[in-house]
Amino acid sequence: MALAISAYNKPGALIHRFHNTVSMIRTMELLLGIAPMNQLDASAIPMDIFQETPDLTPYKAVLPVIAADNWITHKSKDKAAAQWMKKSDRQDFAHADMADPKVLNAIIWFACTGSSSNLPQTAQLPAYQAMRLGIANLHDDEHTSKKDDDD
């Protein structure tokens, strides 16, 4: 998700055309007067959300209402929830991408469905499995050839 906030936005406009990240990149390239970086953004449709003259009408941001105890962790209601809370506490959230994704998926699954539903397997393309098995076989072949060389 992205927000394009500007005095040049068309006020009150609701755009029904599909846009994606590449559309936004193409729009920025056009606004900055730079050439497309590759064929993908060169062929992207720019976002039609801007007007020629700015609307300098002041505005006041509306802040969302958040409960004061929103970030306070309450005691767990049952043993299963307590275990998942401990697993969550053990994750490294201080640095980007350092938490274990498998554990996080299981924690989120439990939080949404409870203990009555098992976490489904992660979907993977057959090519991924073939590549993984091929790499494993390649490593096995290397170990076998090293043993043969040692004899």
- Strand proportion: under 5%
Distance between the termini: 60 Å
Task: Please write the string of helix (H) and strand (E) elements.
Answer: HHHHH
Largest sheet: none
Could you describe the 3D structure shown?
The chain has 151 residues and is mostly helical. The chain has three domains: 1-62, no CATH class; 69-119, no CATH class; 121-151. It has helices spanning 21-32, 39-42, 79-89, 101-113, 126-150. α3 packs antiparallel against α4 (101-113). The chain is flat and about 60 Å long. The model has no long low-confidence stretch (mean pLDDT 82).
Structure keywords:
single chain, mainly alpha, 3 domains, 5 helices
Short description:
Helices cover 43% and strands 0% of the residues.
